[in-house]
Design brief:
The protein has 16 helices and three strands. By secondary structure, the chain is mainly alpha-helical. The protein folds into three domains: 63 residues; 100 residues, DNA polymerase, domain 1 (Orthogonal Bundle); 173 residues, Intergrase catalytic core (hpI Integrase, Chain A).
Length: 383
């Protein structure tokens, strides 16, 4: 954040000249006014936006103890030189097979980890790859990552090792030695938050500034309608059926159309955001607030959600997911708690069948308690 550092130095000098020893929002406002005259309205010049963004981060840290940050989306993967040509040839083959961009991203990530590991242990080329190398790599993964990550890694390596054998890069087919794994949704417990926790997350968003207005509208779509992050970021103006009070769009994950009710709370939040949305020719509703005004990526929405969850002060236990998909899970939990039938929830979440939605029964503690059997007193003979 080089520009932020520059603004912070200017602000520190400004505060020092006025003998201010502590940060305050009032001092920050005076700094901006003295720099640019009367407070400017959004949108403003690029320089003003940079100053405002830097000062907002200071104010955020002062109030909540955290600074919003966006992890850059990885678009390039680096493979050791001795493995690079083979890996990229394999990626091209998989891409030509029509794999989705998210799937290609996962394969590229797993193969980067695998090839770096091989380089670290001294394997000089795929022709020197042995079964024990693959086995050690999987054994280390089992101790460091979740079951789903290990299963995905094994699946990726199985395809890659089979490709190496088929193209002559490996004398023996090591893919046959990989363990057969199966990990389904039924084996996992969804990460969900209670009704009060979701209320705290939404309530901690400062809706007095453009970022807060945009973020609030996006999180409402996840929390109240159960929309996926990819669908929220790709939402287009044509999907907003104001007269019919509904949202209609094609899901990015499944390619199937869906129609959701445009709740008043959600509609009002979107309208409030649109009043300050930067001028852009893009058809998507949600865009960056700083130039260039491009469509937000789902990874950005993850960072936005994570920041507000930390700011809200709710308890996030180790291993519990805290991205926008957790809000989708939370909606399911809240609906189950309200005794909404499973098929209805399946329709809201656009699941292909109720079997997919059954995984949420694991977190419906209220109805699970009703299934508990009475424990007989100690000493009573069981029939």
């Amino acid at each position: 954040m080089p520009i932020d550092n520059k603004v912070w130095r200017f602000f520190a000098n400004y505060a020092s000249k006025r003998k201010a020893t502590h940060f305050s929002s009032e001092l920050a406002v005076r700094f901006l006014k003295d720099k640019f005259g009367e407070m400017f309205e959004y949108p403003c010049t690029y320089t003003q936006e940079e100053y405002l963004r830097a000062i907002n981060r200071l104010d955020e840290y002062h109030k909540y103890g955290v600074i919003s940050s966006k992890r850059p989306l990885r678009k390039k993967f680096v493979y050791p030189a001795i493995f690079d040509p083979t890996v990229r040839a394999y990626l091209l083959v998989r891409e030509n097979e029509g794999l989705s961009s998210s799937r290609m991203h996962s394969i590229a990530l797993y193969l980067e980890s695998f090839t770096v590991y091989l380089c670290d242990i001294g394997v000089k080329g795929f022709q020197n790859l042995r079964a024990e190398h693959v086995r050690r790599y999987i054994d280390e993964h089992v101790t460091q990552f979740t079951v789903s990550t290990v299963c995905a890694t094994i699946c990726c390596l199985r395809g890659f090792l089979a490709y190496l054998h088929k193209t002559g890069g490996l004398e023996s087919d090591l893919s046959a030695l990989l363990p057969r794994t199966r990990h389904t949704m039924e084996e996992s417990i969804p990460s969900a938050f209670s009704r009060d926790e979701v209320k705290k997350i939404l309530g901690c968003i400062d809706r007095c500034n453009p970022k807060g207005k945009r973020d609030y509208a996006m999180l409402l779509l996840a929390a109240k309608l159960g929309m996926r992050a990819s669908d929220i970021c790709a939402l287009e103006f044509a999907s907003l059926k104001w007269e019919e009070n509904k949202l209609e769009f094609v899901q990015r994950k499944t390619g199937k159309p869906i129609s959701l009710p445009l709740l008043n709370e959600v509609g009002d939040a979107i309208i409030e955001y649109l009043t300050i949305r930067p001028q852009s020719d893009l058809n998507c509703v949600f865009v960056r607030l700083n130039p260039p005004y491009v469509q937000l990526h789902r990874h950005s929405l993850y960072e936005i959600t994570r920041t507000y969850m930390k700011r809200s002060g709710i308890c996030i236990t180790p291993g519990k997911k805290h991205g926008p998909h957790a809000l989708r899970h939370s909606l399911s939990s809240i609906l189950l708690e309200s005794r909404v039938p499973l098929p209805v929830i399946s329709g809201i979440l656009a699941h292909s069948s109720s079997d997919t939605t059954k995984v949420y029964l694991k977190i419906d503690h209220g109805q699970l308690r009703e299934c508990a059997l009475c424990v007989p007193p100690v000493g009573v003979e069981r029939m």
